[in-house]
Amino acid sequence: MIRLLIADDEKMEREALADIVMRRFEHEVTVEMAENGRKAADTAVLWEADLILMDIEMPLMDGMTAAKRIRELDQSVIIIFITNMAKYAIKGYEVGALDFVLKPVSYFAFSLKITKALTSLAHREKASVLLTFKNGMMRLPAEDITYIEILRRQMIVHTETEVYPVAGTLTEMEAKLGDAGFARCNKGYLVNLRH
């Protein structure tokens, strides 16, 4: 099931996009909506969105700022900007947007872009985990993790370049990583076998 977030300050636009997506993909997609950039940034990470359709011009926080905030916490979510003006959409590539769609949205063009996004999602279907810190959260691809350890009752996630002390237990992390190629070599370590 794909988690799709639609962020647009116009309710009719959000509903029209959701209608197109639901007609095209029926039961393969779960849709969440946000009416401004701030809510979109918060929802995208907490809800673990796979794909975001985001307007650029919104109140409280514009779509570009929201995308930058989302990228700080989640490098893998796919973002497609929906906008009235192509000149703004080009800036979307600075935040790793997959594409942009000009308003008014036509079913055929939009359907092609969504198909492209779903193809990207299929290639990206690698495991990732949401790490919870004292002051926030971050999504980390499982392939970047070298090992996880429990040290003085604190779980610590190691990558080749960073160390992240996080909340949770090794058993919970083992369940989240599922079939991502990790093995528990003793009660205090979970090791990525690729490393």
Write up what this structure looks like.
By secondary structure, the protein is of the alpha/beta class. It contains six helices and twelve strands. The chain has helices at 11-25, 37-46, 63-73, 86-90, 107-124, 170-177, and strands at 2-7, 29-34, 51-55, 78-83, 99-102, 128-133, 136-141, 145-151, 154-159, 163-166, 182-186, 189-192. A hairpin with a 2-residue loop joins strand 6 and strand 7 (136-141).
Terminal-residue CA separation: 30 Å
Number of strands: 12
**C-alpha Rg, in Å?**
18 Å
As a percent range, the share of helical residues equals 25-40%
Tally the helices: 6
Mean pLDDT, to the nearest integer, reads 87
- Assembly of the depicted chains: single chain
Approximate strand percentage = 25-35%
User: What shape does the CA trace take?
Assistant: elongated
List low-pLDDT spans.
none
Overall SS class: alpha/beta
Order of helices and strands: EHEHEHEHEHEEEEEHEE
Q: Strand order of the main beta sheet, please?
A: 2-1-3-4-5
Biggest pleated-sheet summary: 5 strands, parallel
